Amino acid sequence: MKLRDIAIGANASIYLRMDFKKIKGVFYPRTEQEIIDAIATAHDGGYSVTPKGGGSGLSGACTGGNRERVMISTLRMREVLTVSKDQGYADVQPGATPDEINALIEPIRMKFWVAPSSRDIASAAGILSTDGGGNDTWVNGTMRDNTIRAKMVLYDGRRLTVDWNGVTSDDSELEAELNKKGMTISDVASAHGTLGFITELRVKIKPFPSEKLVGGLAKFEDCNAMGRALSELIKRKSPIRYGETVAAAHEDIREGLDLPLLTLEFPEDFASELKDILDYSDLDSEGLAKMKDVRIKLPKRNPNEGLQIALFEGFGYHGDNLLKMQDAIDEINSLLIGHGLALFARYGHAPSKWYLGDNSPAYGVILHSREIKPEDKTSREMFDTITDIVAKCNELGITPKPEHKWPFSDEEKKTRIKELREVMGTGFNDFILDPNGAYDTLSSLV
Amino acid sequence: MSYDRCVRCGSCIILCPVFDAIGEEQYSPRGRTYLLQVMDLIEEDKELGKEFRRLLFQCTFCGRCSEICASDVDLLKVWHEQRGKAVSEAPEEFGYLDALGKSLANMMNIYGLDPEDRAEFWLDELEDEIPGIADRVYEEGKTADTMVFLGCLMSFRASQMDVLRSLFLTLEKLDVDYLVMGAEEFCCGHPLHLMGDDDGATKLREHNKGVMESAKAKRVITCCPGCLIQISTNHNLKEDIEVLHHTQLFDRLLETIPKYKQEEEFSYHDPCELHRICNVKTEPRSLLNKMGVEFEEMDLSCCGGGGLLRMTDPDLSDEIIQIRAQKEKLGDRLVLTCCPSCREQFLGANLRTRDIVEILADALEGGEK
Asked: Do both A339 and A398 map to the same domain?
């Protein structure tokens, strides 16, 4: 065993304590052929393959669970291959980050409009694998909405290309079978690397809008009031270009803010309509930048004493539960406190968009959650809290981890993945689909 | 254990020059921090421990990871502490540092040369050109407002002669009352600090402090950012002694400067230890602007020469500068900087480079020579 077999486990989730002896190979390919060769090594040894991007996701999928596995990183495949301004796309290697893509295309006044807070390290293929987005998914959609096609390699080395119309492949039988099943980009989105290894992506790029934007800061009595306002914004399909809430924060990081608050950026001519929906005060560009900075740093900050932990990254409030958001937050907070956790921060994208397991879009608030790491809890106790949270989400109709995803209890998505794997073959991140296995595995990694 | 505060977000990965050169997680700050976080799972494996200790010395100490870290992990401090721990745990693995340690212990310079030679090589070279320069060398009883601390590279390396010449010519031109520490200058202790051995540096620092104070210096200047770190933070000088980088002194003394006759394209490389650790960012640029110099800003990343990397892994150090030279197309440009160590790194990669003080001396003389 070498350090490279251990360091490959580095990721932002709480799942980090691995049995490193089960990592049977670590690869950092530079080309598609090197990916194919790495997969062949796994295939020959009978090991599962775990694709890994920037490791900034919080689902734990990039750990590969606890199986004997080969890890393939895309950290050395970060190039932008071609850019077509006229046709509005860029072909990128799987490890290219949004920041890297945009650094290259912003001089031609184009942008790749997917902006997770981890956009400096999150990989394009990784973002598609979680169907992630950022604070602007309300405007620009999630990664799937910004993906035109994905090239993939399967466990047996077969190659295919998936787009919104279906699948093409040199293997006509594979192509026919997958098209019969109606496979599209929606299936690759949020599949958490269970279908194959993404080797290249064609992503949408768009020009910067010319509209003049202004900023506003709204404060609310509680999150029920904020939820009602957001529900109205969603109903009216409001042109909110940036919407972020800080719903609660520990006093060490609150910086004197009255919470809950909602920071908004919107076209100037929407201001009067917005006043009908909620009370807000104007934010000048400096004030807006400050609020954005406060927000983007929240996931990485710590209390003065102790450490923050993303025990369960986020909650998707939508539909009716948006109107009773505070009540739902209170229920989840009670659950957390009951399990001995101290609350640290609640913040997130509002309004936002994500997709449910059946591929229907949901509109609401993605509220991120941070707690203070307890000193006296076992890994098992921590993981039991997570399973209780998932159960509570299901009871309340809240989407668990809508952004980074919680694939392990999404039965609809898992059923679809299994259906496709009957044609495509298995071999990738199999632990996610283990009956109850994922929970057992994850609990051992906390 | 401040590394526990790392949330492994990964923002530090792509910025790291060592990761950029090698491309594997264990060479990234996050990878190393993660290794520390799970050390209890692997510490029984002796080979892994050895590999980890080696890994700690494959770092340029550029501080970019500390700067970007939103979790406020003082990664430079972590690496410093871990290096010290590594050397004390397994000194037999660091035999290649012994020669340096012995040189510093016995000769008080990194080259193991006679301490008397600190003011020999350059004095021979510059004595005719700068009359009276020999009188500027400190001896007991001499005093001056400004003490010049040259550092080991500037004192002994022939490749730094042009910078020295320009430094002294400029000090003379500006009528600065100065002395050079000469044979009484001991290494600032920076190399020992980078080995995690601050105790070993104490004797050197105490000596330097004594000389600076006996010369009744009101300020100490140095061209070397590494020396600047050590003198300003670890020498415990009296509060009324100011420690400055040479660019800070000249920027302060010169409100206007004759325009520099520029005949080629310049890129400016900001030394990591100067701008990121000493927080000296504006003065080098201010000097260049006052001289009307046009320059392109280089990426704020490391030249590959820091953190003792030239000694601990010269191939990696070379690769880092080669990657930069290629990425930033430095082949056709002259690289301006203000650090002797960075300068050595550029020269080693066959890149043309000059210290800002060389440009300044030319401008004060009325044009480029």
From this structure: yes
The model's confidence at residue B76, banded by pLDDT at 50, 70 and 90, is very high
Cα atoms in the Cβ-side hemisphere of radius 13 Å centred on B222? 30
Question: CATH assignment of B2-89?
Answer: 1.10.1060.10
A7–B24 CB contact, under 8 Å? yes
Residue A415 falls inside a structural domain: no
Q: Which run of H or of E encompasses A419? A: helix A411-424
Mean pLDDT value across chain B: 95
For A138-193, write each residue's pLDDT tens digit.
999 999 999 999 999 999 999 999 999 999 999 999 999 999 999 999 999 999 99
Q: Do B25 and A1 touch (CB under 8 A)?
A: no
- Say if CB A370 and CB A309 are below 8 A apart: yes
- Pick from A178, A207, A236: which residue ends a domain? A207
Instruction: Please say whether the dihedral angle defined by the alpha carbons of residues A375, A380, A382 and A385, taken in this order, is positive or negative.
Output: negative
- What is the distance in angstroms between the Cα of A11 and the nearest Cα belonging to chain B? 6
**How many Å apart are CA A94 and CA A74, to the nearest integer?**
6
Segment B157-188, tens digit of pLDDT: 999 999 999 999 999 999 999 999 999 999 99
Average model confidence (pLDDT) across chain A: 94
The residues of B whose Cβ lies within 8 A of any Cβ of A are: 4-5, 7-11, 13-14, 23-26, 28, 30-35, 37-38, 41-42, 45, 48, 51-52, 55, 69-72
Tokens for A111, please give them: 């942008």
Range of the domain at A279: 213-405
**Contact by Cβ (8 Å): A169, A159:** yes
Percent of chain B with pLDDT over 70: 99
Give the pLDDT band of residue A406 (cuts 50, 70, 90).
Answer: confident
Report yes or no: A100 and A78 within 8 Å, Cβ to Cβ.
yes
* Residue B222 backbone class (left: φ over 0; alpha: ψ -120 to 50; beta: rest): beta
Which of A337, A343, A259, A318 shows the shortest CA–CA distance to A294? A259
CA angle in degrees (0–180, nearest 5) for A317-A321-A324: 110
Domain assignment present for residue A394? The answer is yes
Cβ-Cβ contacts under 8 Å, A2 against chain B: 48, 51
Do β-strands A89-92 and B242-245 pair in parallel, antiparallel, or remain unpaired? unpaired
Residue B369: pLDDT above 60?
no
Write out pLDDT tens, residues A240-278.
Answer: 999 999 999 999 988 888 999 999 999 999 999 999 999
Q: Which residues of B35-64 are buried (b: 16+ CB within 10 A; e: fewer)?
A: bebbeebbeebeebbebbbbbbbbbbbbbb
Helix, strand, coil % in chain A, rounded to nearest 5: 40, 25, 35
Give this prediction's pTM: 0.92
Radius of gyration in angstroms for the set of CA atoms belonging to chain A, rounded to a whole number = 21
Return the CATH number at A138: 3.30.465.10
- Beta-bridged to residue A219, according to DSSP, are A261
Give contacts of B8 with chain A, Cβ < 8 Å: 10-12, 16, 55
Query: In this predicted structure, what is the pLDDT of residue A437?
Result: 66
B105-253: CATH topology is: Glutathione S-transferase Yfyf (Class Pi); Chain A, domain 2 (1.20.1050)
